[in-house]
Amino acid sequence: MESLDVVGSGVYGTVYRVPPCFVAEHMPHIDYPLVCKSIQHHTQGAAVMHDTAILEMLCSRYVHEAAVESACMQYLLADVGPLDTKLFMREYKYTLEQYMDLCSLSPGNIRMILYRLIRGVYALHRVGVIHRDVKPSNILMDDPKTLVVGDYGFATSVRYVNQLSPSNAFVQTEPYRAPEVFLGQTVYGTEIDMWSVGCVMFELFNQQRLLETSSDDSDCYMKELFGIMGIPQADAWSSLPHWSKLQSFGLSTAGRGFVLQTRDKKARNLLKALLTLDPEQRITATDALNHEYFKCYRLDQVPAAGSDVAKEKLTYTVQTKAVPKGMIFYNAKNRRKVFSCLQSRTQHFELSAGNFFFACDLADAFFSVDTIEKSHIKVFAYVCMYFATALRDNVALEPDVALEQELESDSRAFLDMQLKILTALNFDLRVG
Question: How far apart are CA 44 and CA 236, in angstroms?
Fold first, then answer.
């Protein structure tokens, strides 16, 4: 796949158009155009999959396994090579940002777009994923009926998010950022996505962003937001890191408010519920789909109340099989040895207990489909811990000197471990 047409590029990767001959050869069952997102591996002397690629693949798998009518982008194939990971997906004609510039939207089209958008956000929330970057340029579509939520580069799992991680405060594009995130909150949930949906809804009706500033500085957006919404009560917000900065702006507690350019009272009520300062009072995706504004679309089963976030723990079945000499047979004794090594890796990298337990889950998943040489236990523990921190903290672990030398000596075995963990989680993989 050389000399490909570039469709777009972002912080973590480049999107290319896939030649029809490649689709016909490798995916003959596909009868629509594809694009692929190429995410370079980390350069650490070994083929280390980028944490963003892992996140995107897992989010796609979570949604696929949700067994709901999903308005979310799904990757059809992951092609893992020595230098990068290529994620294949259907090609859409527009982003919502492009579609708004090209087309005049009727009230019916806006309603359909919002329904599909919230349906996609609901599908993510139902399986415990927070998107953390909902905005028009990350929403893909051919027309209002084929809209999907895409780009999981900033996504994280509710089940495994490290609530103390400072990186949690640096998410969402400023015009669509929730007020609690502006104030430095790192302990949040799916409600931050619903604020972003409200910002998109405002933009669809008013043909301009809710937050318009003359500067791209984050403080300017923060001042504009609370100038519109007003200053919240101190007892609920004063402990947040940027509360004193907000106080220094000298804004009114009432705020100047906003006006949605429509006479539809149901639409205005929905927007008010989405753009609620208090995240605990903000409407959920489930309740938004049940809102009277979408009454005409309730032909299929409406999600049950309280089903936004799946809290169940991932479980795996460990299968016994004949193991060659020098390989680890995953019985209780050897399982304790692996977990002991994971514990030492946790202490070495000064990680949380949550990272440790998630790494143990990944080890169990791996050994449900394969085994490893006894000499690779330390490398295997690093792989599991790398995946765990990528999913919980959006952080890539840097190996120490001794471990890096070991990785360099057998980089192929290292990459194979990563692939087998993903295989254990039922990914459709193609190794380049």
Answer: 44
Q: Which residue is listed with tokens 């050389």?
A: 2
User: Where are the alpha helices (H) located in 103-190, listed in sequence order?
Assistant: 107-126, 179-182
* C-alpha separations of 374 from 204, 206, 289, 322, 359 in Å: 58, 62, 52, 15, 18
pLDDT in tens, 341-379: 888 888 787 777 667 777 877 787 777 667 888 888 888
Residues assigned a catalytic role = 133
Rounded alpha-carbon distances, angstroms, from residue 161 to 164, 213, 374: 9, 32, 31
- In a 3-state reduction of DSSP, which class is residue 149? strand
**DSSP single-letter state for residue 306:** T
- Tell me which residue of 99, 89, 144 sits closest to 120, measured CA to CA: 144
Position 48 pLDDT exceeds 60: no
Q: Running DSSP on this structure, what letter comes out for residue 366?
A: H
| pTM, 2 dp | 0.72
Of 338, 343, 340, residue with least CA distance to 380 = 338
Contacts (Cβ under 8 Å, ≥6 apart) of 384: 342, 359, 360, 362, 363, 366, 421
Q: Rounded distance, CA 146 to CA 141, Å?
A: 5
Domains and CATH numbers, the chain: 6-90 (3.30.200.20), 94-297 (1.10.510.10), 332-431 (1.10.472.10)
> Are 252 and 275 in contact, with CB atoms under 8 Å apart?
no
